[in-house]
Amino acid sequence: MDEREYQTLADAALAKLEDGLERVAAEVECERVGGGILELEFEDDSKIIVNKQAAVQEIWVAARSGGFHYRWDGSRWLDTRTGEELFAALSRFIGEQAGEPVSLG
């Protein structure tokens, strides 16, 4: 994949996350920091950071449960170690930190 395609796909994923957070009941503040970083802040002041890593064409997530790297497989973003899909993982991470089930779809 070339740089432009990566940027388009990664930007779409961040926008999808922002849109999904508007529909969840959990109290999560979402702020875009720079062009490629989303900070999710929870009532207990914990955070999840989602950011683009253009040099390796990945999306990285830092959550209370650890750090995770997601790479585009041609149709979706998958964890480089476990194969878990990005939005399934984010739903779980956000739910864990918010203390209630979350589904980003």
Your description of this structure?
The chain is of the alpha+beta class and 105 residues long. It has one domain (3-98): Frataxin/CyaY (Metal Transport, Frataxin, Chain A, 2-Layer Sandwich), CATH 3.30.920. The chain contains 2 helices and 6 strands; from the N terminus they run αββββββα. The protein has helices at 3-22, 86-98, and strands at 28-33, 37-42, 47-53, 58-63, 66-72, 77-79. The chain has a 6-stranded antiparallel sheet with strand order 1-2-3-4-5-6, with helices on one face. Strand 4 (58-63) and strand 5 form a beta hairpin. The protein starts with a helix and ends in a 7-residue tail after the last helix.
Topology readout:
Blueprint (H helix, E strand, L loop, with lengths): L2 H20 L5 E6 L3 E6 L4 E7 L4 E6 L2 E7 L4 E3 L6 H13 L7
Antiparallel strand pairs: 1-2, 2-3, 3-4, 4-5, 5-6
Quick synopsis:
The protein is of the alpha+beta class and 105 residues long. It has helices spanning 3-22, 86-98, and strands at 28-33, 37-42, 47-53, 58-63, 66-72, 77-79.
